[in-house]
Design the sequence.
């Protein structure tokens, strides 16, 4: 009996730190969408041309459904990262070195200072290094509208519309070359109807519509 009690006590003690960490605030989930300036599903003939010349820019969007990060509740808030790199952002997936990037971050203008910091921390931690050097951080109204067929996002100086349908035309040996830039639980490829950024902080602007260049899905951290 003593051994049983001792085992139960040890199990309780071992579980306590885990419970404390969970209570500290890294349980959060929501929707995610991104689009870059290069195809993610295409043929090798197009990829050979794009790999070294395009795909250096992207928009990454997190919309929190529920949960907290760093102990701060973020229910219903969103954050957008506009990314510019010195080479194709997905090049490391096909054998190249990771791109050096800079980011302009737009935080939901409904966020408190603590929520603003937590949203930025979440984007940095779960962007696989895409959000590292932040050159602009500002508050903005963020519209994130998800329907059955598309996701539409708008914020200061940027627009993104992603159709949830993608034509898997196998011409030219078309296949999926890349995966989402950020950490995503479930993802699917989409067709980008609108992908534009007009800000000045990144030293580049873009408008790159009508491409198979996007992903959408959910996240759970």
Sequence:
């Amino acid at each position: 009996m003593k051994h049983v009690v001792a085992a139960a006590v040890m199990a309780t003690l071992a579980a306590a730190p885990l419970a404390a960490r969970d209570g500290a605030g890294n349980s959060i989930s929501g929707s995610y969408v991104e689009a870059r300036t290069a195809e993610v599903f295409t043929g090798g003939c197009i990829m050979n041309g794009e790999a070294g010349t395009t795909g250096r820019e992207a928009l990454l969007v997190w919309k929190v459904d529920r949960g907290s990060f760093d102990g701060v509740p973020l229910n219903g808030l969103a954050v957008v990262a506009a990314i510019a790199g010195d080479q194709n952002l997905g090049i490391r997936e096909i054998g190249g070195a990771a791109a050096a990037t800079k980011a302009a971050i737009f935080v939901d203008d409904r966020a408190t200072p603590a929520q603003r910091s937590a949203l930025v921390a979440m984007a940095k931690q779960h962007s696989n290094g895409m959000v590292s050097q932040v050159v602009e951080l500002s508050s903005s109204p963020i519209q994130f509208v998800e329907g059955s067929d598309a996701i539409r996002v708008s914020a200061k100086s940027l627009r993104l519309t992603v159709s949830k349908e993608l034509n898997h035309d196998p011409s030219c040996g078309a296949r999926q070359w890349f995966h989402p830039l950020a950490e995503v639980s479930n993802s699917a490829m989409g067709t980008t109807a609108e992908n534009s950024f007009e800000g000045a902080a990144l030293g580049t602007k873009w408008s790159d519509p009508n491409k198979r260049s996007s992903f959408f899905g959910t996240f759970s951290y």
About this structure: The helical segments are 2-24, 44-50, 113-125. The two ends are 40 Å apart (CA to CA). Residues 1-23 have pLDDT under 50 and may be disordered. The chain has three helices and 14 strands.
